[in-house]
Design a protein that fits this description.
Blueprint lengths: L1 H37 L6 E4 L4 E7 L3 E7 L2 E6 L3 E5 L3 H4 L1
Antiparallel strand pairs: 1-2, 1-5, 2-3, 3-4
Length: 93
């Protein structure tokens, strides 16, 4: 009985290390991204995964329309938003 437990002990330790070093931080990051996407509103300045910067003009559950300049609007999926930028970031660039 004792040999069986000592045989599985390295696997248990490796799983615990993987959980605290990989799985748990990844779940926390996913939760932060989900909260950021849920909190988006019209007028927010965002950056997309493709590197576009723009201001949100319209949004619904799945898509967002961002204004890239005064003449161009782009419709993208909500999941393509990478970061919420501080107000005034686009004008300062």
């Amino acid at each position: 009985m004792n040999e069986a437990i000592s045989g599985f002990l390295p696997f248990i330790i490796i799983f615990v290390l993987f959980y605290f070093m990989l799985i748990r931080p990844q779940m926390a990051q996913a939760k932060k991204v989900k909260a950021m996407l849920a909190a988006l509103k019209v007028g927010d300045e965002v950056s997309t995964t493709g590197g576009l910067l723009g201001k949100i003009t319209k949004l619904n559950d799945q898509f967002i329309i961002i204004e890239v300049n005064s003449n161009s609007e782009i419709k993208i999926q909500k999941q393509a938003i990478q970061a919420l930028l501080p107000k005034g970031t686009i004008k300062s660039i």
